[in-house]
Amino acid sequence: MPIETHSFGQLVVPEDGPNPGIVLIPDVWGLSDHYAQVAGRLAEVGFAVLVVDPYRKTGDRGEFSDPAGAMAFIRQLSDPLVIETIQEGIDALAAHPAVAGRKLGVVGFCMGGMYALHAAGSCSGLSAAVAFYGMIRNEAGLDPEKKPRAPIDALADLSCPLLGLYGEEDALIPVQDVRDLEAALSGSSHGGAVHIYPGAGHAFFNDTREQLYRPQQAAEAWSELVPFLRECLG
């Protein structure tokens, strides 16, 4: 399905419409062919998808080549600016003729999954949020202006159902953090679910990263994702 350049990133819409909308938040490397492909798959099952550029307002895309450098970059990134960018993406997609008032959700991966957790508790206009292996807690000692609260703390203001999809062997996200996320979600009236996949680590859904990709667990996660979005967004 063709992808269009959009002032907020990249847009993929089904031929028939209008349809429910999804703001897709990519990982720390930003817009890429992988997320264009994911957006295409979501469009094929009936969603209009805006892949938002998370750095549209920050002006800083970082210079890193490995996970350690990527994590160092994320630690100094301004959460309020990125969340503001996501809110603007939500508003822009809601106003697009391809959506025309249908319900909207967010889906994020890695860093984008972290911001999906933030969006679920900070953004308006959402009916669903999905975090693929999004970081859950902040390290101690970070700049409080850039990191005013941890992703898990944003769930105190949860405004929509949330689905969390995590690998049991994720070296970046302790399983206990995921269990704590599950416990926090269980106390919310909005509901949702957390799934932990044995044999999978970080980025298990990303088929462009051969060493990390786990096709069976990725397929299982997709089978959870699509029904959840259809139930929440109609």
Describe the structure.
- The chain has 234 residues and is α/β, with parallel strands linked by helices.
- The chain has one domain (4-233): Rossmann fold, CATH 3.40.50.
- Helices cover 37% and strands 17% of the residues.
- The chain has helices at residues 33-44, 67-76, 79-95, 111-122, 151-154, 175-186, 215-233, and strands at residues 4-6, 9-12, 21-25, 48-52, 104-109, 128-132, 162-167, 192-197.
- The protein has an 8-stranded mixed beta sheet, sandwiched between helices.
- Strand 7, helix 6 (175-186) and strand 8 form a beta-alpha-beta unit.
- Helix 3 packs across helix 4 (111-122).
Order of helices and strands: EEEHEHHEHEHEHEH
Give the class-level CATH name. Alpha Beta
Given the helix and strand composition, which structural class is it?
alpha/beta
Beta strand count: 8
Task: Compute the number of helices.
Answer: 7
Uncertain runs are none
Sequence of strands across the biggest β-sheet: 1-2-4-3-5-6-7-8
Backbone shape: globular
Looking at CATH, which topology would you report?
Rossmann fold
- What gap, in angstroms, lies between the N and C termini? 22 Å
Strand content: 15-25%
Structurally, the number of domains stands at 1
CATH homologous superfamily identity: Alpha/Beta hydrolase fold, catalytic domain
Mean pLDDT: 94
